[in-house]
Structure formats: structure tokens, C-alpha cells
Design brief:
single chain; alpha/beta; 13-stranded parallel β-sheet; two-stranded parallel sheet; 15 helices; about 35% helix; flat
Length: about 475
């Protein structure tokens, strides 16, 4: 065979291979198309992804959706599909919350009690102006036999008037009952009779206690120690708000060995702070509610280093001005805080202004040597926008003076700047030189103009913005997809 014949034969073989590969590619494409079609059919058959979630995950989503909502929300979810309805009906955890609020609550309570089986119960009692005491009492009588299952109890009542506080019948109904599993109690009663069921005998494992809007006179407690009326040995979190009338609490007489979080908003809490001993206290939220009580200097001046374990302090003042002795007393009582939050409509300058005679330190806030962050919420804008911000602003000067220490994170939120937007922009620039600045809900009233000349783009003119603030805004806008 000559060379020409050999070349022709090889070409024929290659062309046949080409035709075979084309047929194979066509078959593969057809098979792939069939598989895509089958996948689409299967997806449509299986339904939405949320219906294919494991029951445990879907239940967790439902619990998040139902948290702090109206009980009827559960009925709405149950109507979405049979699958959702079965999950809600079959799982006891969706029926552990029982609310007593009206004459129709008893039937609902019976239904919840049956479907919750044997899991712990969360009981809420709401007493309004028009709710019958007899109805509330009847529903409580039904639930009290199951007190061994109560995990939390919340009682919210609205007094008929200042002369007729919340009905005592609610407290009488549970006053002598033991709650071996009760871990959380929240009371908003508006009365002056202290609940008798809060002793360590009745609630041996109670960890969280809130008593709000209470007019407490410890002299009415039959002369027994305060520690016999609440389970001081087990409490991890304690909230107290209202009036604590002057009483005979002795210094260091009330021991909370495991208390970690304390929230106090009392008309006069001087004796209370002097009486408590809290070796494991980590966080305290204190609200100074009125100028009729003792000043801060009187409350905390004798408590130097008493709360040295506290790492987080939130301080709110609703009435009156602060002076340097007030600020010094508060700072010395909590010397090791890492995080401080101020909420005040009044000037906080005494914490940061120079003051002689404070142990060689420049200002009261200098006692906080381990400070990492400061949050200012709802503060007076004049504190930030004093004339010549860089020269006389007490907080800026304090930052400059502590520049050799750990860099501070400063968070400013809920501030309304109506007339001094330019000063705030200057302040932002100065703060950034000395700390990490975070802004949240800062409302500025800006003078601005829109410009568009012939053959040019639309321009927004903001004469009050500084270059640093403009650059930061540009970075944020540049990161938005």
C-alpha cells in the first residue's frame, strides 16, 4: 500500500471516531437533560425546604418565634400546615407556658397542663383593673397542686389606685406553698406587703428574683432578718426597684455568696448597699431615681473597694446634678470595672474633670485603672458640644491624660444634635485621635445643598462634615453591596 492510501485510511478512521464521539456526546447531553428534569420534579415533589427541616430544628425556630408573644401566635403557626400543627400539638415544650389573665384562662390552663405532660411549667399571672379576684383565685387553686413542676413564676398586677394595691389574695394563695423546682420569680405588685413564699424553705433553688415598683418597709417584716425573706444563698441575679424606707439593716448583715448580677433602682438604697456582702458580684446596674433620697456621696462614700469584684457597671441618674464627691464615691466603690455605661440627661463632667485631693489622681474616673470601654446613652449633648471642644471638654482632656494606658472603646448612642452638628463633627475627629469611637443612633440636623451645573454630576454639599468623618462615611458606603 502506497503512502497516499495509508493517509486516506487514517483519515477515514479519524472521521469515524469523530462521528462516534459526537453520538456519545449527544447521548450524554440527553441523559444530563433527563437528570435535570428529574431533579426539578423531585424538588417540586419534596416541597419547600422549611418542611424538610428536622423536627428539632423546626421546633427551635418555633420557640424563637413564640418568645414574648401573644399566646394566640401559637395557634396561627399551627394553622400553616398539618406538619407544623402536629409538631406543636405533640411536643410538650410548646405547652409549658401557662398564663392566668382573664375568665377564659382556666380552660386554656387545663389544656396546657394536659399537653405539657410532666415537663417544668412557666406560670404568668396578670391582674388588670377589671379582672375578678375570684377568677384569679380559682385558676391558681387549680395550678397550685402542680407546684412541684413550676420553673418560673411572674406576677404582674395593676393597682386599682394608690390606695388599693394589688390584691393580697394572690399572695395568700401561694404563701405557704413549697416550690422545689422554682428558679425564676418576677413580681410587679405595687404593694407594700412582702411575699411570704420567697423564703429559702419555700424556694430552695431560686436563682433569679425581680421585685419591681415595690414600696418596701422592712419594719413590717415582724423583726426577722431580711435574709430570711429571700433565698440569699442561691440567688445569682437580683432586681429591686421602688421604695426601700429607712430601716435597721446592719452593715454587712446580708450575705449573697453566689450573686453575680444586681440591678437596683431604689428611692434610698444607702442601707441596702452597706448591708449586702457580694463576693462574686460581676455586674451591677444602679439607677439613682430621685433627689429626695441620699446623695451618691452619702450612699457610697464608706464603701471604698467593697465591690471590687464588679467588672461591669451601668449607672443611670434621673434627677439632680452630680458633683465631684458623688463621682469619687461611686468610682472608689467599684475600682476594678472594665466596662461602664452611663445613662443620664445631666452632665457627667464631674467624673472626668480635674479635682484636687483624690489620692493624687487627676479625676474620679482615674480610679478605674482597668477600664476597657465606656458607653454613653441618652446623655446631655452639652457635655460633648462645649465651645472649644479640644481645649475644655472634660472627657477629651481625660482621654488625653490617660493616653499611655490601654486604648479605650467609646460608644455614644441615642444623641440628638440639633444646632451644633459642626461641633459634633469636630468632637468625633478629636475622639478618634485618642480612642476607638462607636456611634449608634446619632441624630444630626445638617445644613446641606444639592448642586448640579451644566455638564457636571449632581453634588451634595455638606459644609459641616470634617474630612475624617466624611472618609469614614465613604468607607461604610463603599462596603454596601
Amino acid at each position: 500500500m502506497d503512502e497516499l492510501a495509508m493517509v486516506r485510511a487514517e483519515l477515514a478512521r479519524l472521521e469515524e471516531d469523530e462521528r462516534r464521539l459526537v453520538r456519545q456526546l449527544s447521548d450524554i447531553r440527553a441523559a444530563a437533560s433527563a437528570q435535570r428534569k428529574r431533579i426539578e420534579e423531585l424538588i417540586q415533589t419534596r416541597g419547600p425546604l422549611i418542611h424538610r427541616l428536622p423536627v428539632e430544628i423546626l421546633s427551635s425556630i418555633f420557640h424563637l418565634a413564640l418568645r414574648r408573644t401573644n399566646p394566640s401566635r401559637k395557634d396561627i403557626l399551627a394553622c400553616v400546615s398539618r406538619h407544623w400543627r402536629n409538631i406543636i400539638l405533640d411536643q410538650p415544650s410548646f405547652w409549658s407556658k401557662i398564663e392566668i389573665a382573664s375568665s377564659r384562662s382556666l380552660g386554656r390552663a387545663k389544656k396546657h397542663l394536659k399537653k405539657s405532660r410532666e415537663i417544668p411549667l412557666d406560670i404568668t399571672i396578670r391582674k388588670g383593673f377589671l379582672d375578678s379576684n375570684d377568677t384569679i383565685r380559682e385558676e391558681l387553686d387549680f395550678l397550685v397542686p402542680f407546684a412541684n413542676r413550676w420553673r418560673s413564676l411572674s406576677i404582674f398586677t395593676r393597682p386599682d389606685s394608690v390606695f388599693r394595691p394589688a390584691p393580697r389574695s394572690i399572695l395568700d394563695c401561694i404563701g405557704a406553698i413549697n416550690f422545689p423546682s422554682l428558679r425564676c420569680v418576677k413580681l410587679d405588685l405595687g404593694g407594700d406587703t412582702f411575699p411570704t413564699f420567697l423564703s429559702s424553705t419555700n424556694v430552695p433553688v431560686l436563682e433569679h428574683l425581680e421585685i419591681r415598683n415595690f414600696h418596701l418597709n422592712l419594719r413590717s417584716m415582724s423583726g426577722t432578718p431580711f435574709s430570711e425573706h429571700i433565698p440569699v444563698l442561691t440567688l445569682v441575679t437580683l432586681w429591686l426597684s421602688g421604695d426601700m424606707l429607712p430601716c435597721s439593716l446592719q452593715p454587712d448583715s446580708v450575705h449573697f455568696p453566689v450573686l453575680e448580677t444586681l440591678n437596683v433602682s431604689l428611692r434610698d438604697g444607702a442601707d441596702f448597699f452597706k448591708a449586702i456582702v457580694t463576693p462574686k458580684l460581676k455586674s451591677i446596674d444602679y439607677t439613682h431615681t430621685t433627689h429626695f433620697g441620699s446623695p451618691l456621696s452619702a450612699i457610697f462614700s464608706s464603701l471604698e473597694d467593697k465591690f471590687s469584684s464588679v467588672k461591669q457597671l451601668s449607672f443611670t441618674i434621673n434627677f439632680g446634678d452630680l458633683d465631684s464627691p458623688d463621682a469619687r464615691a461611686l468610682c472608689r466603690a467599684f475600682p476594678n470595672v472594665h466596662h461602664v455605661q452611663f445613662c443620664s440627661a445631666f452632665s457627667l463632667s464631674p467624673f472626668f474633670s480635674p479635682w484636687e485631693g483624690i489620692d493624687g489622681l487627676r479625676s474620679p474616673a482615674c480610679y478605674w485603672k482597668s477600664l476597657e470601654s465606656v458607653i454613653f446613652g441618652g446623655t446631655d449633648s452639652e457635655m460633648w458640644l462645649e465651645t472649644l471642644v479640644g481645649e475644655i471638654n472634660a472627657f477629651v482632656q481625660w482621654l488625653v491624660a490617660r493616653r499611655d494606658q490601654r486604648q479605650l472603646r467609646v460608644h455614644i448612642k441615642s444623641l440628638h444634635v440639633l444646632e451644633e452638628a459642626e461641633s459634633f463633627c469636630m468632637l468625633y475627629e478629636r475622639l478618634r485621635e485618642h480612642c476607638v469611637v462607636e456611634l449608634d443612633s446619632i441624630h444630626l440636623r445638617l445644613e446641606s445643598r444639592l448642586l448640579r451645573l451644566a455638564d457636571s454630576c449632581l453634588q451634595l454639599y455638606l459644609p459641616t462634615f470634617t474630612s475624617v468623618l466624611t472618609d469614614d462615611i465613604g468607607v461604610v458606603l463603599g462596603n454596601i453591596d
